[in-house]
């Protein structure tokens, strides 16, 4: 499965924001320390999240980032796509005329992996940021 650290870290950072949202804006430094993610990497991720209106920045001494919407309204799929990620099992292009093996046909297992892609992406469409926060709060009690 292909999901780089960018997609995973974006979800982790957004879950962190959701978990601490009652405390106001959260600095990237705080997220970096809590989630063990490079600050420079978080800065790159948050530019993309902000451009897709998933987070907003607050300036000032107590500034940082906040969720643009409530965690109940943010799908994991939206976070992953905001950082230009896609979850896919296949290396081949679905609509390629050359097929999977640079031939005129698809590989023998193409449909299996294609169906798995659909299941995974449907799963990420159904899971909301709030689901992650609730599970984390239950585990940490």
Task: For this entry, give a set of tags.
141 residues, mainly alpha, Arc Repressor Mutant, subunit A
Looking at the structure, what is the overall shape? elongated
- Average pLDDT metric: 87
Compute the number of helices: 6
* Largest beta sheet: strand ordering: 1-2
User: How many distinct beta strands?
Assistant: 2
How many domains, as an integer?
Answer: 1
Oligomer: single chain
Regarding CATH, which class?
Mainly Alpha
Biggest sheet layout: 2 strands, antiparallel
The CATH H-level superfamily is: Winged helix-like DNA-binding domain superfamily/Winged helix DNA-binding domain
How far apart are the first and last residues' alpha carbons, in Å? 32 Å
Runs in which pLDDT lies below 50 for 5 or more consecutive residues are: none
Task: Estimate the strand proportion.
Answer: 5-15%
- At the fold tier of CATH, the topology name is Arc Repressor Mutant, subunit A
Q: What Rg, in angstroms, do the CA atoms define?
A: 18 Å
Helix-strand topology string: HHHEEHHH
Helical fraction: 40-55%
Given the helix and strand composition, which structural class is it? Answer: mainly alpha
Task: Describe what you observe in this structure.
- This protein is mainly alpha-helical.
- It has one domain: Orthogonal Bundle (Arc Repressor Mutant, subunit A).
- It has helices spanning 5-19, 28-35, 39-51, 76-82, 110-126, 129-139, and strands spanning 55-58, 64-67.
- A two-stranded antiparallel sheet has the order 1-2.
- A hairpin with a 5-residue loop joins strand 1 (55-58) and strand 2.
- The radius of gyration is 18 Å and the shape is elongated.
- The two termini are 32 Å apart.
- The model has no long low-confidence stretch (mean pLDDT 87).
């Amino acid at each position: 499965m292909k999901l780089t650290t960018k997609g995973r870290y974006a979800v982790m950072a957004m879950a962190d924001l959701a978990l601490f949202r009652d405390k106001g804006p959260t600095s990237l430094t705080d997220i970096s320390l809590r989630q063990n993610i490079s600050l420079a990497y978080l800065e790159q991720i948050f530019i993309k999240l902000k451009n897709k209106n998933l987070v907003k920045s607050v300036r000032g001494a107590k500034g940082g980032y906040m969720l643009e919407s409530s965690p109940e309204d943010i799908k994991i799929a939206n976070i992953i796509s905001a950082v230009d990620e896609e979850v896919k099992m296949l290396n081949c292009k679905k609509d390629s005329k050359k097929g999977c093996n640079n031939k005129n046909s698809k590989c023998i297992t193409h449909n299996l992996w294609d169906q798995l892609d659909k299941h995974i992406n449907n799963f990420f469409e159904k899971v909301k940021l709030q689901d992650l926060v609730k599970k984390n709060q239950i585990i940490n009690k």
